[in-house]
Amino acid sequence: SKSGGTDLLHYKLPLSLSFSRALQSMVAFLKDPTGAPLWEENPEAKDVVHVDTEKDFRKLLKREERPILMMFYAPWCGVCKRMQPVFQQAATETKGTYVLAGMNVHPAQFDGLKQEYNVKGYPTFCYFEKGKFLHHYENYGGTAKDIADWMKNPLPPQPKAPEVQWSETDSPVFHLTDDSFDGFLEEHPSALVMFYAPWCGHCKKMKPEYDEAAEYLNKDKNSPGVLAAVDTTIHKAVGERFKISGFPTVKYFEKGEEKFTLPHLRSKDKIIEFLQNPQAPPPPEQSWEDKPSSISHLGMEDFREALKKKKHALVMFYAPWCPHCKNAVPHFTTAADIFKEDRKIAYAAVDCTKGPNQELCKQESVEGYPTFNYYNYGKFAEKYNGERGEAGFIGFMRSLRGRDQGKRKEEL
After folding, report:
1. How much is the pLDDT for 319?
2. What is the mean pLDDT of residues 87-93?
3. Handedness of CA 130, 110, 77, 135 (dihedral sign)
4. Catalytic residue chosen out of the listed positions 80, 325, 352, 361
5. Residue 294, CA distances (Å) to 13, 128, 220, 360 in order
6. Segments of the chain assigned to CATH 3.40.30.10
7. Residue, of 198 and 406, whose pLDDT is higher
8. Cβ-contact 230, 195 below 8 angstroms
9. What average pLDDT does range 160-175 have in this prediction?
10. Catalytic annotation, pick one of 77, 126, 325, 352
11. Which of 177, 210, 275, 281 could form a disulfide with 225 if both were Cys (CB 3.0 to 4.6 A apart)?
């Protein structure tokens, strides 16, 4: 509610909490009034053992005879939020036989604990028997039944087979090094070169198309050109020379000289079509971020702080090259313009192809483009799977506002 132009936020004390937890809850609210409530305040999580301090954690390991599965998490972590309902259901189903516990280890005071148990990301699940850590649980997409079944037979994660480097496969693409780069281009007057990084998801998606295009071109006696690739995480001199800052970057070389950078050359057919008639790409369109609009363009550095201030935020995770994203942009922008005067509402966007944002998109479980997530005061609430036109985006937000008005009437 408002009083004299000032927002008044009401705190509701969960009556089921002990004194120490109630105090902790109030302190958390005072530190961050618009933040999500603590996990331990959720009555459905009553069978999860919530651990607050390292001392309590050590005590639990020492005294508990039953096997323990500990979930180390961070309150802002999207994957954690999605797994918490599953984890708490598994805790209820296995109550009395096993202990499922949760601990927020994001604060710096737990850095030593994180190092001890190799917590490099959130969530991290550690399995203990009689106080001893045995191994991790890594089925992040599992159901409550999967967790319960695993606790009956807690096998360690299967070692992942080392990924074979692209250059070591039977690839029809010519794989270049710092030493072979210039000589290769002297011998091949028409060449496309893909600069890539092995960890890059977009590169992995492009590799099969690039391989198939190379195979087709290599069979042609009158081939219009060749395809080559450089892993710039290893061959850094070439990457620095051509100022490679993103992956994949595709460049066309003619008689050893760089001619064009081709940001949208991704499919087999487009690659072959280009080499058959090499033309300069059209000038780049003005990026969505550079166009004036009511969209809040967010990144890893400001995502959580910005959303915590908004009661209703619909976020579009996208890639600039994605056709479905391009189709949705004008409709999403129009919806944002309609609600631009409402300070409690935000339409936001995150470019997942930008380096720092890739980890953010991973944390928010973005697996395809575009992905739309709805957040309530910074807390993930649901995925938006509705219509991707103006009517859908506007109607979704209006339904949320209608729900707010209904709640206010009930309170009156």
Report:
1. 92
2. 96
3. negative
4. 80
5. 36, 50, 51, 22
6. 36-152, 166-276, 288-407
7. 198
8. yes
9. 90
10. 77
11. 275
Q: Which two three-digit tokens encode residue 33?
A: 């009034």
**How many Å apart are CA 207 and CA 199, to the nearest integer?**
12
Query: What type of residue is 29?
Result: F
Q: Which residue type, as a one-letter code, is found at position 275?
A: L
Q: How confident is the model at residue 409 (pLDDT cuts 50, 70, 90)?
A: low
**Strands annotated E in 52-176:** 68-73, 99-104, 124-129, 132-137, 174-175
Residue 80 appears among annotated catalytic residues? yes
pLDDT at 34: 47
CB 211 within 8 A of CB 171: yes
Average pLDDT over the chain, rounded to whole? 89
Max CA separation in the chain (angstroms): 81
Tokens 């999403």 sit on residue: 332
1 vs 242: CA distance, rounded Å = 56
Backbone angles phi, psi at 92, to 5 degrees: -70, -40
- Alpha carbons within 13 angstroms on the beta-carbon side of residue 88 total 16
Find the helix or strand (DSSP H, E) in which 186 lies: helix 181-187
**pLDDT bracket for residue 406 (50, 70, 90):** low
In the predicted model, is pLDDT for residue 14 greater than 80?
A: no
Of the listed 126, 203, 352, 361, which one is catalytic? 203
Report, as an integer, the average pLDDT of 178-187.
Answer: 97
**Torsion sign across C-alpha atoms 408, 409, 411, 412:** positive
| CATH number assigned to the domain covering 36-152 | 3.40.30.10
Tokens 């690839």, located at residue: 171
In whole angstroms, what is the distance from residue 378 CA to residue 209 CA? 39
**pLDDT given for residue 178 in this prediction:** 97
pLDDT cut 90: percent of the chain above it: 70
Does an H or E element contain 308, and which?
Answer: helix 303-308
The per-residue pLDDT for 5 is: 47
The residue whose two tokens read 């710096």 is: 108
CATH architecture of 166-276: 3-Layer(aba) Sandwich (3.40)
Q: Which fold has domain 288-407?
A: Glutaredoxin (3.40.30)
Cα 176 from Cα 185, distance rounded (Å): 10
